[in-house]
Amino acid sequence: MITTTQLQAQYEALKKEQPKLRIRNAAAHLGVSELELLELKLGKNVTRLEGGWKALLKELEPLGKIMALTRNDYCVHERKGIYKNVSFMENHNMGVAVNEDIDIRFLMWDWAYAYAVTMERGNRILHSFQFFDSYGEAIHKIYLTPQSDVAAYQKVVDKYKAADQETSTFIANRIRPTKEMTPDEEIDVEGFQEDWKNLKDTHDFFPLLRKYQLQRVQALNMAPKGYAYQLDKQAIVQMFEKAAEQELPIMVFVGNRGCIQIHTGTVKKLVPMEGWFNVMDPDFNLHLQTAPIDQVWVTKKPTLDGHVTGIEVYDADGEMIVQCFGKRKPGKPELENWRSLVADLK
After folding, report:
1. Which of 74, 98, 163, 234 fits a disulfide with 289 by CB distance 3.0 to 4.6 angstroms?
2. Cβ proximity of 215 and 318 under 8 Å
3. Do 148 and 38 reside in the same domain of the chain?
4. Biggest CA pair distance of the chain
5. Residue 330 pLDDT grade (very low, low, confident, very high; cuts 50, 70, 90)
6. Which residues lie closer than 8 Å to 68 by C-beta, 6 or more apart?
7. What is the model's pLDDT at position 135?
8. Are 74 and 193 in a shared domain?
9. Strand ranges for the chain from DSSP E
10. Is the pLDDT of residue 311 over 90?
């Protein structure tokens, strides 16, 4: 087993070799978790936290304007705003923060660790809260902005600071088990298609997958005729370009196993750069790595307000990278302009 001293030396050498390498990518390169790299600074600029993460999230409104960051392997979603209206289902690990700016769905079954982190970036000092799962993988991060209240941040840090700031956390199992897929021939395709046609709400789609024990891409391939079809891999970029041209408000969902973050509104400044497609607006940034895109699907899900059209982007393992809709609210049909935009995509 590698020692902390050895890992520190390897990490420092890697940073000299690749100074722009992000900690998540450095961890993958070194064969450790991001959490273990972060803890190399434990007791210095990294403070281990303990206590209830649900309670902590409810105490962030006094910080003022922050930047919430949620990502997966190939897409980063950054949204600025006020972290408020956080609530959780009673005796349950699901929660929400519902606001025009900070709009998040919390899936807290595996929120295992949290830290307060202070780091230098250029001529700025960045303060953040960072949450990790039991595999040492980052679930969600919250960064202060120049408009944030640092004293309010420090108050939360002091309240949740763990007594032990010395013992390193060792992640024994960094590799997630692969998901088992039910063979196609064992699926009641007719029953599944009929249930899809009878959906009443987009949120009923996940229970539908669970009922038939289907993975998402597997389900899309079995969809009723006209309810799902594939597009070119670059269609997601075309969608953003058309939405920006038309000033059409959209919804952009990016998530992982513990958190889903949503932007609702227009997108304006689009910046392709070295294998990444970026949205670089003042309060919303998206960084989408384009090469790993394996499949892009249009989906149509019935609701009480008419069908809802979505664009779903997947990697080669069938994991969702990003999902987009036209701006909509329950009780109102989706925008006709959105439907037209999607219909024009190839």
Report:
1. 74
2. yes
3. yes
4. 60
5. confident
6. 78, 79, 80, 81, 83, 102, 104, 140, 141, 142, 261
7. 95
8. no
9. 46-49, 65-71, 75-82, 86-88, 94-97, 103-107, 113-121, 124-132, 138-144, 228-231, 250-255, 259-265, 270-273, 276-280, 284-289, 295-301, 308-314, 320-326
10. yes
